[in-house]
């Protein structure tokens, strides 16, 4: 089914505009809240993925966070300069760089939920439980549409 036509396509009502606007608002709120940790919301993603063992190399991180390798390298440079992570060559494949949180990085990872949850819950404060679950379901369906082509 085609939902948009030339007659009903209003830029500020398009899904692309609304998703981008929502993302930008969450990022602005999250970046402001993360100031005490001296990290950005994108850097928060790297720290969380590492702390949870979901990704351990720059390539895996780029893939999971949908960030190009150039931006990933710059983010890792900053996180390493701030003492939050260390990079080292893999013992099994010298072409691979392994990422590991430092103690400071682990401490930051432990603080992130206390900072991030109020930001997200603040944006969702006007949603009922059912609306929140429906939003999650619909966004999941929207994201999964890409994998069904």
TrEMBL record:
Q: Gene3D superfamilies, per this entry?
A: Winged helix-like DNA-binding domain superfamily/Winged helix DNA-binding domain
Instruction: Please state every residue range assigned to the domain named HTH marR-type.
Output: 12-144
Which keywords, in A-to-Z order, does the entry hold?
DNA-binding, Transcription, Transcription regulation
Asked whether the keyword Ligase is assigned, the reply is no
PROSITE patterns assigned to the protein according to its UniProt record, in alphabetical order = HTH_MARR_2
Q: Which SMART domains match?
A: HTH_MARR
Identify the Pfam families for this entry. Answer: MarR
> Which SUPFAM superfamilies does its entry note?
Winged helix' DNA-binding domain
**Protein's UniProt keywords contain Transcription:** yes
- Recorded protein name is MarR family transcriptional regulator
């Amino acid at each position: 089914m085609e939902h948009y036509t030339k007659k009903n396509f209003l830029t500020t009502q398009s899904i692309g505009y609304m998703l981008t606007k929502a993302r930008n608002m969450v990022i602005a709120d999250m970046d402001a809240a993360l100031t005490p940790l001296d990290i950005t919301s994108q850097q928060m993603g790297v720290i969380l993925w590492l702390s949870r063992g979901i990704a351990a190399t720059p390539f895996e991180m780029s893939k999971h966070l949908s960030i190009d390798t150039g931006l990933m390298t710059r983010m890792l440079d900053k996180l390493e300069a701030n003492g939050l992570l260390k990079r080292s060559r893999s013992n099994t494949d010298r072409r691979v760089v392994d990422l590991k949180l430092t103690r400071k990085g682990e401490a930051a990872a432990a603080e992130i939920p206390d900072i991030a949850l109020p930001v997200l819950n603040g944006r969702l404060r006007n949603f009922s439980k059912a609306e929140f679950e429906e939003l999650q379901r619909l966004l999941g369906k929207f994201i999964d549409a890409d994998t069904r082509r």
